[in-house]
Amino acid sequence: IRVFSENGFVKTSMELVADDAALAVGTLYRYYKSKEELYVSIVFDAITLMHDGLEEIAESNKTPSQKLEKIWNYFYRFYEEKPMYYHALLFLHDPSFAGAFSKDAHDSVERFSSKNFRLLAKVMQQGIDAKAFYPDKPPEFADFLWSLFVGLVNLAETRKQFGGKASGLDQLHRAMWQKIYRTIVVSD
Questions:
Q1: Which of 22, 85, 101, 114 would be 106's cystine partner, CB 3.0–4.6 Å?
Q2: What tens digit of pLDDT does each residue of 125-167 get?
Q3: Phi, psi of 102 (to 5 degrees)
Q4: Confidence at 76, pLDDT banded by 50, 70, 90
Q5: What's the gap between Cα 111 and its chain centre?
Q6: Residue 133 bridge partners (DSSP)
Q7: pLDDT of 44-58, one tens digit each?
Q8: Quick one: which of 56, 180, 64, 58 has its CA closest to 126?
Q9: In angstroms, rounded to a whole number, what is the distance separating the alpha carbons of residues 168 and 170?
Q10: Residue 61 per-residue DSSP state
Q11: Where are the beta strands (DSSP E) in 39-138?
């Protein structure tokens, strides 16, 4: 994770990973056939970590609006505390990376990623059923919420990368929660 974080996917090599892990490169190849396969294992770790956090929130005894806010804040904490895992999840959309997955791995990633969205949709449905949220389509809202967060991160990172205003993601994140809350939540 550290080597990929420091060098990015393209510049990372199995040799760099082996050096960082104090392993012979041949030993690393015993466990992973390629850099892509190694990265896929990071993707599975990221999906699992995301799922565990979302499941804990979804299964808690909080109100639906409290759960929704905790999920929104969990996205931010996940990005802040586990940036490589966060970026690994985003790398899934890159068409050049598609070949790194076997059919079985692809199906597993899709199946497990879907569980994460279903957890968010479940929280939305709980809020609708409790008449705490305005009626909407929970699966579409899960996509909306994730896309909104990803867009905020991309905006903040792009500004930072090009020497613009400091990222300000924390402020954007808080401000957007207020808008989400007013748009979705009827009452607590």
A1: 101
A2: 999 999 999 887 888 888 888 899 989 988 888 888 887 665 6
A3: -75, 165
A4: very high
A5: 15
A6: 185
A7: 899 999 999 999 999
A8: 64
A9: 5
A10: S
A11: none
CB count, 10 Å around CB of 152? Answer: 20
- Type of residue found at 23: L
Tokens representing residue 77 in the block: 């904490």
Residue found by looking up tokens 């890159």 in the block: 94
Cα torsion at 113, 115, 117, 121 (round to 10°)? 170
Chain length of the chain: 188
Structure tokens at 36: 């892509």
Block residue for tokens 């804990």: 56
Separation of alpha carbons 30 and 122, rounded Å: 41
Residue written as tokens 């909306």? 144
Q: What Cα–Cα distance (Å) separates residue 17 from each residue in 39, 44, 89, 94, 154?
A: 11, 18, 20, 22, 27
As given in the structure block, the two tokens for residue 22 are 């104090």
